């Protein structure tokens, strides 16, 4: 995500959620170095950046013990300087623990995240629902929230994800701050905003 106005949020290295791109990343020199640093120094002696690469490698190898160890390590070290990268990785791997820990910082820096197309692509249903529960997003108007959900739904990387996100809207309208949804959807439709037909009769 772009670095704007002195904010510390940095661009996530997870540039794609495509499986082939993920496998290419896992085999890169960064992952090899992460594994070597971990082998020689243990997890407490590596940086959060290295731990995140190690976490992704462990996930790819289905090493639950190492995934859990990296998750615990990262949870204690999430900050504005790395939250975008951790959020992307947490959503790509569907790690609910990391998602919940990242959510407050993402909500606090909402103006930056909402401007990123990658954010909409990688954020899973549980991630979006977590964000909508925080006061920062609760302050957004119902119209703004629905437009955010539209961007998120339209950024789906394939038909399966698009269908899941379209269906998830029915659960999200029950969250605080989205009232009178039928009237709101009708108003947006009149404005010429393309509303999925499934959303018009919630």
Concise synopsis of the structure shown:
63% of the residues lie in helices and 0% in strands.
Q: Descriptors for this entry?
A:
single chain; 202 residues; mainly alpha; elongated; disordered N terminus
Structure description:
- The protein has a domain at 1-106.
- It is mostly helical and 202 residues long.
- It is elongated, with a radius of gyration of 18 Å.
- It contains 13 helices and no strands.
- InterPro entries: SKP1/BTB/POZ_sf (IPR011333).
- Which structural class should the secondary elements be placed in? mainly alpha
What is the CA-based Rg, rounded? 18 Å
Shape: elongated
Helix content: 55-70%
With helices defined by DSSP (H or I, 4 residues minimum), what is the helix count? Answer: 13
Overall pLDDT score: 78
Order of helices and strands: HHHHHHHHHHHHH
Q: Please give the number of β-strands.
A: 0
Strand portion: under 5%
- Let me know the largest β-sheet: none
Give the N-terminus to C-terminus distance in angstroms: 33 Å
Unreliable segments of 5+ consecutive residues: 1-7, 9-27
Protein name: Coat protein
InterPro entries: SKP1/BTB/POZ_sf (IPR011333)
Organism: Hymenolepis diminuta
């Amino acid at each position: 995500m772009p670095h704007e106005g002195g904010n510390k949020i940095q661009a996530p290295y997870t540039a794609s959620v495509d499986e082939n791109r993920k496998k290419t990343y896992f085999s890169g020199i960064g992952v090899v170095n992460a594994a070597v640093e971990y082998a020689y120094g243990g997890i407490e002696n590596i940086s959060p950046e290295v731990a995140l690469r190690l976490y992704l490698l462990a996930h790819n190898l289905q090493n639950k013990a190492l995934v859990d160890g990296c998750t615990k390590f990262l949870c204690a070290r999430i900050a504005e300087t790395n939250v975008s990268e951790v959020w992307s990785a947490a959503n790509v791997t569907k790690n609910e623990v990391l998602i919940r820990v990242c959510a407050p910082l993402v909500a606090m820096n909402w103006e930056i995240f909402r401007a990123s197309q990658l954010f909409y692509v990688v954020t899973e249903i549980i991630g979006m629902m977590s964000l909508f529960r925080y006061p920062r997003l609760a302050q957004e108007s119902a119209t703004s929230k629905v437009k955010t959900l539209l961007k998120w739904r339209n950024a789906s990387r394939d038909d399966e994800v698009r269908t899941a996100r379209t269906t998830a809207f029915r659960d999200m309208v029950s969250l605080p701050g989205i009232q009178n949804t039928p009237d709101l959807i009708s108003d947006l439709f009149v404005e010429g905003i393309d509303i999925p037909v499934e959303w018009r009769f919630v």
